[in-house]
User: What shape does this take?
Amino acid sequence: MNTQKTLLEGFRVLDLTNEKGLLASRILADMGAEVIKVEKPGGDEARRIGPFYKDQVDPGKSLFWFAVCLNKKSITLDITKKEGQEILKRLSLRADFLFESSPPGYMAALGLGYDELRQINQRLIYVSISPFGQSGPYRHFKGPDIVVWALSGFLTLCGNPERPPVRFSFPQAYFMACGEAAIGAMLAHHYRVSTGEGQWVDTAAQHVCTWPTMDARSLWEMFHKDQERAGSHRWRTMPGGVLRMRLLYPCRDGYVQLYIWGGKMGEASNKALQAWMEEEGLDISALEGTGWPLGDIAQITPEKYEKIVDLASRFVAQHTKEELYEGALQRGIMLSLVSTIEDICHNRQLNERGFWVDVQHEELSETIPYPGPWAKLTETPLNRWERAPRIGEHNNQIYLDELKMSPAEIEHLTRLGVI
Amino acid sequence: MDGQGDRKMIFSDLKVADFCWVGVGPIVGRILAEFDATVIRVESATRPDPLRTMPPFKDNKPGLNRSVFYTGPNCNKRSLALDLNNPKAREVAKKLIAWADIMGESFGPGVMEKWGLGYAEVKKINPNIIYYSTCMQGQTGPHRNFRGFGLHMAGLSGLYHILGWPDLEPVGPYGAYSDFIAWLWMRALVLAALDYKRRTGKGQYIDLSQLEATMHFLGPLLLEYHVNRRDTPRMGNTDKYSCPHGVFPCLGKENWIAIAVENEEEWKGFCEALGNPPWCQDPKFATFPSRKAHERELNQRIEEWTRRFEAFYLMGHFQIHGVGAGVVLKPSQAFHDPQLNQRPARVILDHAEIGPHGYPTTGTNFSKMSSRFWRSAPLLGEDAQWVLKEVLKLPEKEIADLVAANALK
Assistant: This one.
């Protein structure tokens, strides 16, 4: 019996991605794979992305890089040079996965496309992450985050009606794509297990980002109605009419989300909310005749719904977000607070679950708390959390120890700017 | 891509007991069902999947088999209705668990334990099963019993905080947004755990907190707080590294185009696309920091120009000039997007009560295999006979007893 303790022990991944794809192989790295980031000499462009450690703009201090290259190794290699391409081919020989996120056609033009590399290693799983996919009319379109969200149909759903649609202030589209690409890699691995063959995995960010539009698409299909953005409200087409559902309620020191809903879950939450309001002496007569506690939400009319919302807003406005959240937790009310980044970094649940892990940065003489295990597993816990590599930190291990290059050869390649 | 490979189905022999409900859990199991695993959804009319009770409903008439919200995560699956409060139904559940290679659940913590179906019990029935649990905040910790949906976790995680205009309240992302993050991580784990089990024979228990999974999409912002003590606020459509960057109005009502200029070469292309009007040459727009300093004025100039053109025309026009630009598609327009249709991003399946409608496909295409969509989401309890007879091989008499005991509902 094998004695491995991580899910993907023994698998090797070559990571040739740019900032769009770096999270994909990190997911495999967290699960125990050996991921080698191939950087251009002088360091990857993604190291220029902030925020930076103590605001010091330096390729060794990018917090973006720290977060997405955790648990990886790094070698430097210029794959635009012939010598670099030869070395990459040698590395591909014993790689299980390769991830890249260049514009479609770029890798093939370097002689490093899937068709070339599978001649060297037919078991290789070659994962491409791109804005729109490797084929189709938009394949050569540029797809920065906001454009991907626009063309996925998601952007139109977000924002205040009196202003343009609005996106996340911290890019999210390619993180979604990275998650999907990691899944694609694992699915292809299952195919490899049964056939011995690798394949080309083609993840498209636009396609992935249609998922959160799922129910807006259904609305069109069912009623030929386009969902419109409604600020922090949401439109819901109900048998009793179109509800403008309120999700966000201002409280004394910020916002909370309260979901007034029906069904068994909603009913229990509504009753608990009512009890709390009554304890505090609020006049709840407005609830009469609304169908409260809404065992059958499908029948509510917009007028009745508004009455309930008015009452709830008055209640919420009297409290702080922490009071409301703690109270909701104790009483089983479907209410959460809207965290700032500061709030969530002090969240009690995350602290007590051991979510934050201290990662040693000896190069900064510092220990930094990172978001750690994203799941708890009984047999193969996610417990390796090693800082992102320095530029070319593992050149010796890979070039000297593994590829058995001579120091003279390495010096030569360094002089040529290949390593 | 080959496109021609032999269409082997990787999970043809895989058996899945899917006790999940709502979004994340069922979507995890769907990827196994897409590659031919036998996935049996265990659900109940006495405690219906909330998605079955949520709109949009076919013809706007509520009904447990009429919600299109429910169908997307559940195609290719079989449905067995079991009232798990009934001891006879729990016996059936245990038989199903003994049959399965992998099982999942997504109730609140403690619910499966209450029914005697927690991991400790299940391990006695099936020692090497993979058992995945997904809930809002994990199986342990002081907030484990939090009740809510993905929209709450989008708020709690900080995603609401970073979406909206700085001078207005946060608007947050549309929908149960963090669901769409959580299932990505869980699918990756489940697929890796299946491979681990194949190699070692060992199953295990997986506890995924939707909150924790979501937090990894905010990683750099969390580090920034821990290191620099700085909270990142929402900033509308501006970007730290691109300018111009935003959504601009086009000809007509509610027609918009998203544009991002990421470097100086693209800025040159952008100016050319506009026909190099004199203001483009103004030194205050000559460099990125300077454009950023005059962003409001720049955006006004751009708006004045984009307003005169049709959005789809502008997309092609900017892209030809090497600038990232895309129409802000409405849901109705996304159905006609040639790129999404080329993937394709949805397939049509015919549902007995709802009729033919679309199902979203996974955002990855493969050169040697593809998902197979063979069946729309099941009606509640539709496959009881098939599961009990063909899968669990129960004798007729026993099935009749279950019916008589009201266990199958």
